[in-house]
## 1
Amino acid sequence: FYSKELQGVGDVVTPVTPDDCTPVWHLYVIRTEKRDELWEYLKTRQVFAQVHYPIPIHELGVYKDTLGKKYAGKLPVTSKYAKQILSLPIYPDLTKEQQQHVVQAVKDFFKQ
């Protein structure tokens, strides 16, 4: 539902799912250059999105001390995307009406 409804909305990039696959979403993660602004706006609309992985693994704790030296500056796309990803609400009891509310809030944000 989200993938179809969010196509062409602002600069939102939705997950790509092959036509012959049916995903079982654990997280539904979009990307946008306006992640932080959208996140704050969604809160005002009672949409509780999350940033689940704000720091790339190669920049975390022990990994930074070990892998970070090897990969420092070599994963620019990973570092960029970490600042753009936002998980929209998704769980088994999420109703169609609630999904529509989420979508409308995202659309309204980009209409501002």
## 2
Amino acid sequence: NAHFQLPLDGHPPTHPPNSLTMPHVLISTQNVMEAGPTVCGDADSDAELMAKIGAVLGTQMGNSYSEYVSESPPRIILDKLEESGYLIVSQSGPGQTLAWTLRKPL
């Protein structure tokens, strides 16, 4: 487990303070690539980046985890991530899911 120092106000951070040093983003969509929705990150993703690309944190019925989702199609999310300095490093299509891994150079 990583050890994090509490901020001066004594409250735990909402996400790891060095999350920007982890420069990868994984997005995915199922079935219809042209329409969305697009899964943009898990609950530990950079909240500021998720807001910038229009993704909202939520939990789908039946899931035990939260994820950031945007109603925009993947193309729009990929364009917004590129504007923020992220580049596609891989893409795959397992089953009816399409997934992209992006990286921001440090």
## 3
Amino acid sequence: RGSLLGDTLNQAMQELREQGKLQDEAMESINASFDSVTSDALASAGVLLKGENSALADWYGRTNIKIFGHLNMFRGVDNVWTLLITDAKLKVYPGSEQDISLDALKIIAMQKQ
């Protein structure tokens, strides 16, 4: 739920709850459904299915990204890990000869079940 989509869903449900249009039980049910659907989507073949986009299909599954920087935060809860890296530098192999520099990089990862 620590994504833009999850945060937006929670904000919308909170507003409906404050207006008296949504009960706590319904919120729990919606959150459980969101978690289930998100988990199923992440456990599937991934966002890019082979054959959808030939330019990306060549890149998919054969690319490595090395991340350098300072690990400021690491949290693992229910097989979901959040890492916050500052002064991050990314190197993409093969392909990019140019490093990607970022002030901060947040990575949210989930263990495949």
## 4
Amino acid sequence: MPFSDPKFPVINPSPDVDECIKSMRYRDYFMVASITGASWCYGYVFGKPVRRPTASTAAALGLTFASFLIIQDTRNRLMGYQENSRELKKYGPYPIQPPQFNKPATEQETRYPTATGLTSESTKPKLNWKNYS
């Protein structure tokens, strides 16, 4: 999970697996089918003595990889880390959105630059110096 604030509207800040599967796109189904099929072909081509069992094992591994990849992509879309316009139309935004920090480059601190400028208080809280007296 990224450590910066989401760049797109948040739909669900903590989606579970069922919500990720329900919000799959056609591209995701195509990726699952193509990765699994390519894995089966790889196992068939390189599994010379026993081709079909090797191909089936490779297809199972490819399906597992594809499912992890798709869950990661859909989770990032629901949490606002990837483009999510379709899901936003379908489910609507989450009621509480993180603040957007879009300062121009001239207004940002140049002595101590940050990687993205989007780190929030919840990710990196300010130090409490009251305990250090």
